[in-house]
Amino acid sequence: MPTLPGNARSRRRKPGGGEPQAAGEAKNTTTLDDRLKALAQEKNDARAKLDEAMRSEKAGAAIREEKFRKLLEVAKDEPIEKPIRDIDLD
Questions:
Q1: CB of 1 within 8 A of CB of 9?
Q2: What is the pLDDT of residues 62-78, one digit of tens each?
Q3: What is the pLDDT of residue 68?
Q4: According to the model, what pLDDT value does residue 80 have?
Q5: Which residue blocks in the chain are alpha helix, DSSP H?
Q6: How far apart are CA 75 and CA 31, in angstroms?
Q7: Which of 20, 25, 24 is nearest to 10 (CA)?
Q8: What is the DSSP letter of 15?
Q9: Cβ atoms of residues 20 and 13 within 8 Å
């Protein structure tokens, strides 16, 4: 096995690790409790977005239902006609 110059051995990557850390770099100080709080906040944000989407969808459905009823009333008042087919135009 070839020998490594000077500090090359200490800077070698560890299995499963990323870049080697320099002596002055701070490690990630996120604790499990901090991460759990962040996940709970993300969950609450996602639920709020879903609730807002559901409210807007329900409001949109009510508007579409009202438009459909108005068009149905107008269609009931019109006389029934035989539809025109392309072959009839010849």
A1: no
A2: 999 999 999 999 988 88
A3: 95
A4: 82
A5: 32-77
A6: 65
A7: 20
A8: T
A9: yes
Cα 69 to Cα 20, 23, 74, 75: the distances in Å are 68, 73, 9, 10
Instruction: Give the model confidence (pLDDT) of 13-44 as tens digits.
Output: 555 555 555 555 556 678 999 999 999 999 99
How much is the pTM?
0.43
Cβ(39)–Cβ(45) below 8 Å: no
Distance of CA 81 to the CA centre of its chain: 48
Under a CB-based contact definition with an 8 Å cutoff, are residues 12 and 20 in contact? yes
Dihedral sign, Cα of residue 54, residue 60, residue 66, residue 69? negative
